[in-house]
Amino acid sequence: MATAATPSERLSSYNPATHDLIGTVPIHGPAEVDAAVARARVAAERWGALSFQARSEELTAFRKALAARADEIAELLHRENGKPEIEALTEVMMALSHVQHATACAESAMAPRRVSAGILANFRATISYHPLGVVGVIGPWNYPLFTPMGSIAYALAAGNAVVWKPSELTPLIAVKIAEIAQQTFALPDLLQVVTGAGPTGAALARAAVDKIAFTGSPGTGRRVMMAAAERLTPVLLELGGKDPMIVAEDADLAKAAEACVFGALTNAGQACISVERVYVADAVHDRFVDEVVKQVRTLKVGGDDGQLGAMTSTAQVAIVKDHLEDAVAKGAKVLTGGPDAISGSYIQPTVLTNVDHRMKVMTDETFGPVIPIKRVGSLDEAVKLANDSRYGLGSSIFAGKGARAVAARLRAGMTSINAVMSFAGIPSLPFGGVGDSGFGRIHGDEGIREFTRVKSTAEQVMSLPINMMSFRQPKDAPSRLRQMIKQLYGSGVVAKASDWFRKLRS
Ligand code: NDP
Question: What pTM was estimated for this model as a whole?
Answer without folding.
Answer: 0.93
